[in-house]
Amino acid sequence: MDTIKLKECIMRLDELKKDAQEVQKKGLPFMMASVVIWTMILAVQFLNMKMISINFYTFMCSSFLLPLAFGFSKVIKADIFKKTDNPINKLGFICTLNQMLYLVIVMWAFSKSPEAMLLLYAMVFGAHLLPYGWVYDSKAYTAAAIIETIGAMLIFTFVGRYATVLFMIVVQIVVCICLATEIRKAKTKIESRY
After folding, report:
1. Cα separation, 153 vs 122, whole angstroms
2. pLDDT of 192 strictly over 70
3. Model pTM greater than 0.85?
4. Cα–Cα distance for residue pair 86/57, rounded to 1 Å
5. Burial class (CB in 10 A: 0-12, 13-18, 19+), 14
6. Which of 29, 31, 149, 152 is the S-S candidate for 72 at Cβ 3.0 to 4.6 Å?
7. With contact defined as beta carbons under 8 Å apart, do 147 and 171 qualify?
8. Where are the alpha helices (DSSP H) in the chain?
9. Quick one: DSSP state of residue 115?
């Protein structure tokens, strides 16, 4: 492939990525939903029940992801379910499905190692954010993936599950603020061209 064609391909890829970022607001509705879900998970940790029940309700909290993300998308005017031919949108969806495969490990821990389930859940959640750093051209996703995965492991090991969930909430709030800032800067940059 000659240099000119390669540059054209890269420019086209950048256009597709920018379109996906604009339409989906860099996935911010999902990150906002995750703050609510991790807050629900924190509340579940305080229930006076057996660990297996706490783990079950922790899993149940995830079922609110799509309705919450849809609600937040309406608030910030994102179109997270827009049907499009943009392959970057499809890639983002595949990255989300990737997390579902990792949840099999968490399900194993649900019965075989109930005390470790929350840790694995937090690590899987954190790790699944990594590809979005590329999809949305966002350092916030890349940093969060590394910080949450390693941080959750260390905090869970040395402090405990309550602190781990609180840590996840705080990092997700920071990610939301960073994404909102990135979106605002991108919008300002587009508006300044006109």
Report:
1. 8
2. no
3. yes
4. 36
5. exposed
6. 29
7. yes
8. 3-24, 28-45, 51-61, 65-76, 87-112, 117-127, 130-135, 139-158, 161-193
9. G
